[in-house]
Write a structure and sequence with these properties.
This protein has 12 helices and 28 strands. By secondary structure, the chain is of the alpha+beta class. An 11-stranded mixed β-sheet has the order 2-3-4-6-5-7-8-10-11-12-13, sandwiched between helices. The relative contact order is 0.12.
Length: about 575
C-alpha cells in the first residue's frame, strides 16, 4: 500500500487542564525515584515499593522519527523483563478526568490502580513490585512524539518492533519484552507480533479487534462509524497530523490493498500468546476469536470470561494468572504454566449461575455438534426438521415492529458453545439492497428476555445508558449483521461454522430475486434450562444500539419490504453449536 492512499487531518495538542491531561502529562525528561508509599492523588493506591521512573525518554525509530516513552522499573541491579503498553492514549493520562470517569461509569474504584498505568494497560505499581519494568510509549504523532499518527496498521507494527528492540538491549533489561493491555493495546499486539521482533518473548492481547475493516469501520459491510469517529476525534492528541479513518472508509467502502494493510498477518504470529476474550463485546469479541483461530503460535492459550474487559483485566486473581504466564516465558520460572488448559471458557445463564474457568483443549470443545434449527414462517417456530412447505414472512423497513422473530423452547438443559451462524433466503421489495441484523436472545420460561450487566455498576445510570445501547456493558445475546449486496463468501476463509465474506464486490438484488446469505454471529456460551426459550430475531435496524453510551448510532439506508423465505427449496436456518451433556 502506498502512503498516499491514507487521508490525514490535523491533530490537536493535549492542553493542560483538559479531561485527558493527567498528573504525569507534562513533558519533563529525566529519571527520578518514586518512593514506596507515594500516592499520586487521593483516589489512587499508594506505591508498594520504590520505583525508578525514566520520564520522556527519546526513542528513535528506523525512519528517524523521535518518540518518547516512560519507563517504570524496580530499584536494584537485577536485570528485568519489560511489558509494553502500546497505544495512542497519552502515557500520562492514568490520572486524567477521562480515565477516572470511565472507572466511575463501570463501577470500578480508582484505588485499585496507582495512577501510573496507561489507560487499559498494566499498572507499574503491581508489576514493578514483582520484578518487571513497564514501558508506556507516546506513539508516533502523539503528544511530543514526532510524525503523523496512524491507526492500526503495519506501520504501528514496525514502530513497536523498533521500540521493543530498543528496550531489549537496555542495560537494566534481561532482553525479554512482552506486550499487554486491552482494546487498542490488544489490537496493536497482532501487528507487532507479526513483525517478529527478536526480543519479543510473549504477548497478552486482552480483548481487541483484529481487522480494522470488519471489526471497526465496516462490520457486516455497513459504515457503522460511531466508535471510529470517537476514536479519531478524541485520541491521537499531538502536534502533527492523524489518520482520518472516517474519510478513508468513505473513499474505500470495499476491501482493497489499503484495508489489507490494516489486517494483521496472523500466520506470522509465532510467539507465546495468552489471549483473553468474552462473548459480550460487540467491538472486540469477533476479532479476538478470529486471531485465536488464525495465529500460528504453538504456545497459545485462550481464556473466555463472563464480564467486561476492564474489571476482568484488573482483577487480582487474573493479574496473578497473567504473571504466571509471564514468569514462565520471560523469567524461565518452572511454575507449571504449561499444564494450564489451552482453553478456559465460561458459560452464561443470565440468571446468576454463570460457570467459569472450564478447561478444554480447543474452542469449541470436541463434544460440540453444529445443529440446524429451521425457520418456519407459518408457525414462527424453530425446529430441527425443515418445513416441507414453502412460506414467507415480511416486515416493512422503518415500521413498527420492523423485524420478525422465531422461537424454540428447550425440553431439557441445553448448552450453546461455539460459533452460531444464520443461513437465510431473503428478498427485498421496493429496493435493491438490505441491511440485515440478527440476534440470538434468551427468554425465561415465561417468555421474558434475559440480560446481564457485564460491569460491577448496576445502578440507575447504567440502566439508563443500556436500555438501548451500551452493548458492551449489558449482554443481550449473540448478534450478527450483513449488508446483503456484500454477501459473497471468501471460499479460502469460510468454514461450515464460520462464514467469512470478501467485502470486495457489490451484488445488488434484482426485483423478485431470492438470494441466500450466511451471517456470522458472535461466539456464544449460553445455558438454557428446561422450559426456557431461544428467540431468533431478524431486523432491518440494529437490535443492540451503540456499543458505548454517547456514540453516534448507525442509521441504515434500508427501504422497502424485507422478505424472509422458509421451508422447501428456501429452507432458512439458524445453525447452533450444541454441547453434549
Amino acid at each position: 500500500m502506498s502512503d498516499n492512499q491514507k487521508i490525514f487531518m490535523p491533530s490537536r495538542p493535549l492542553v493542560p487542564g483538559s479531561e485527558r491531561y493527567g498528573l504525569l502529562s507534562n513533558f519533563e525528561p529525566g529519571t527520578r525515584t518514586l518512593k514506596a508509599g507515594t500516592q499520586l492523588a487521593p483516589a489512587f493506591r499508594a506505591l508498594p515499593v520504590d520505583i525508578l521512573f525514566d520520564k520522556d525518554v527519546a526513542v528513535t525509530l528506523r525512519d528517524g522519527t523521535v518518540t518518547y516513552v516512560d519507563v517504570f522499573r524496580p530499584v536494584g541491579a537485577e536485570k528485568v523483563p519489560v511489558i509494553v503498553a502500546f497505544s495512542p492514549y497519552g502515557k500520562g493520562q492514568g490520572t486524567s478526568a477521562s480515565a477516572m470517569g470511565v472507572f466511575a461509569l463501570v463501577g470500578l474504584e480508582n484505588s485499585i490502580l496507582s495512577g501510573l498505568a496507561k489507560f487499559e494497560g498494566p499498572d507499574p505499581a503491581y508489576w514493578c513490585a514483582r520484578g518487571y519494568a513497564i514501558c508506556n510509549p507516546d506513539v508516533r504523532g502523539v503528544a511530543e512524539s514526532q510524525g503523523d499518527s496512524v491507526l492500526w496498521d503495519r506501520q504501528e507494527g514496525r514502530d513497536a518492533y523498533d521500540l521493543i528492540e530498543w528496550l531489549g538491549v537496555q542495560e537494566w533489561s534481561n532482553g525479554r519484552v512482552a506486550m499487554s493491555g486491552t482494546s487498542y493495546l490488544a489490537a496493536s499486539q497482532w501487528f507487532t507480533a507479526a513483525e517478529q521482533p527478536p526480543h519479543l518473548a510473549a504477548i497478552n492481547p486482552w480483548e481487541g479487534m483484529s481487522d480494522t475493516y470488519r471489526d471497526l469501520v465496516m462490520r457486516g459491510g455497513m459504515p457503522d462509524t460511531g466508535f471510529a469517529k470517537q476514536l479519531r476525534d478524541f485520541s491521537f492528541w499531538g502536534n502533527g497530523q492523524k489518520e482520518d479513518i472516517i474519510a478513508e472508509g468513505e473513499r474505500y467502502p470495499l476491501i482493497n490493498d489499503f484495508w489489507e494493510n490494516k489486517i494483521p498477518r496472523y500466520d506470522q504470529i509465532k510467539v507465546p500468546a495468552y489471549l483473553v476474550s468474552s462473548y459480550s463485546n460487540t467491538l472486540h469479541t469477533q476479532g479476538t476469536f478470529r486471531a485465536w483461530r488464525r495465529l500460528s503460535s504453538p504456545d497459545k492459550w485462550l481464556r473466555i470470561h463472563n464480564t467486561q474487559e476492564w474489571p476482568d483485566y484488573y482483577d487480582e486473581a487474573n493479574r496473578e494468572d497473567l504473571r504466571c504466564f509471564f514468569d514462565h516465558f520471560l523469567k524461565d520460572i518452572d511454575n507449571g504454566w504449561e499444564h494450564t488448559p489451552r482453553v478456559r471458557y465460561s458459560l452464561l445463564d443470565l440468571e446468576g449461575g454463570d460457570r467459569v474457568a472450564i478447561g478444554a483443549n480447543q474452542f469449541p470443545p470436541k463434544d460440540v455438534t453444529s445443529t440446524k434449527f429451521y425457520l418456519n414462517a407459518d408457525t414462527r417456530a424453530l425446529s430441527t426438521e425443515a418445513p416441507a412447505k414453502e412460506a414467507a414472512v415480511r416486515y416493512v423497513v422503518g415500521s413498527n415492529p420492523g423485524s420478525v422473530s422465531f422461537i424454540h423452547r428447550f425440553d431439557a438443559e441445553t448448552i450453546l458453545l461455539g460459533y452460531p451462524k444464520a443461513h437465510l433466503w431473503v428478498e427485498v421489495d421496493g429496493a435493491d439492497d438490505m441491511d440485515l441484523f440478527v440476534l440470538v436472545q434468551k427468554l425465561d420460561v415465561y417468555g421474558t428476555p434475559l440480560t446481564q450487566f457485564t460491569v460491577p455498576n448496576h445502578n440507575a445510570r447504567l440502566h439508563d445508558v443500556t436500555d438501548y445501547g451500551g452493548s458492551i456493558l449489558r449482554y443481550r445475546g449473540s448478534d450478527g449483521r450483513l449488508r446483503v449486496s456484500l454477501r459473497r463468501l471468501d471460499d479460502d476463509l469460510s468454514t461450515d461454522d464460520i462464514p467469512a465474506h470478501t467485502f470486495n464486490r457489490v451484488d445488488k438484488l434484482a426485483t423478485g430475486e431470492i438470494v441466500d446469505v450466511q451471517i456470522d454471529l458472535l461466539p456464544i456460551g449460553l445455558i438454557f434450562y428446561a422450559g426456557e426459550q431461544l428467540r431468533f430475531i431478524i431486523s432491518g435496524r440494529s437490535l443492540l444500539g451503540t456499543m458505548m453510551p454517547g456514540i453516534m448510532e448507525y442509521t441504515s439506508p434500508n427501504t422497502g419490504t424485507h422478505i424472509v423465505h422458509t421451508g422447501g427449496e428456501h429452507a432458512s436456518y439458524l445453525q447452533l453449536p450444541i454441547k453434549n451433556i
